[in-house]
């Protein structure tokens, strides 16, 4: 399913007569709770979504119900409260709660606000230097994968990060002729931006926690050595526009998107004919 199809399905679901689309009065009358009780549960659920997303981990419905004291409430009340909290997130904060397609009952929070990249004073989100560095590296890795037909080997990825100056191979693994060719050590200030271990940041944070990347074991040239491939994770598919990635690459190479025909065609198919308009 393309990004455009997912967004259309989500918008349609919000318009249909689901419990979450009822007015507060209708909802409270149906469930036997007062309006104040329902408003309190929705407020608690909304707050939980926002707090739980601070580390960009998957938000589990079961945890939300537990910490918001919804476990003992009827199932239809739980559904109604969560749906209303999701609507409140979107209308008030510009954040869409997107249910995972691979892990049902888990949610990603996706920012729907368009940032003004030319004027920092008009931006909705102010990131720290560390957050900027981590998101910049994440976007760069996604760009590498997208321009490499959707997958890169672990060897290719970490050689690329070494060239960027953000990764250094462990000294214990530098053996043989290439032992003295591991490249310059990573600047300590750069290393600190990724908590001292860029490889761990990639595998534990981007793959394991935030789901920007997916990591699959594959058969490598040496069966005795573990080999992996990286591709876009589910959060990246929801959150990152491939048109933005392609535009970034084109700016670097000072060329038109049509120069990368395969990627150009994929963007057009997924996001529509006007996704790469320059105006």
Give a written overview of the molecule.
This protein has helices at 3-15, 24-31, 35-52, 61-67, 75-93, 129-146, 154-164, 188-193, 198-209, 234-239, 242-253, 261-271, and strands at 59-60, 95-99, 106-111, 152-153, 213-218, 227-232. With 279 residues, it is mostly helical. The chain folds into two domains: 3-111, MAGE homology domain, winged helix WH1 motif (Arc Repressor Mutant, subunit A), CATH 1.10.10; 126-169 and 185-240, Arc Repressor Mutant, subunit A (Orthogonal Bundle), CATH 1.10.10.1210. The strands form two sheets. It has a three-stranded antiparallel β-sheet with strand order 1-3-2. A three-stranded antiparallel β-sheet has the order 4-6-5. The longest helix has 19 residues, at 75-93. It is globular. It starts with a helix and ends in an 8-residue tail after the last helix.
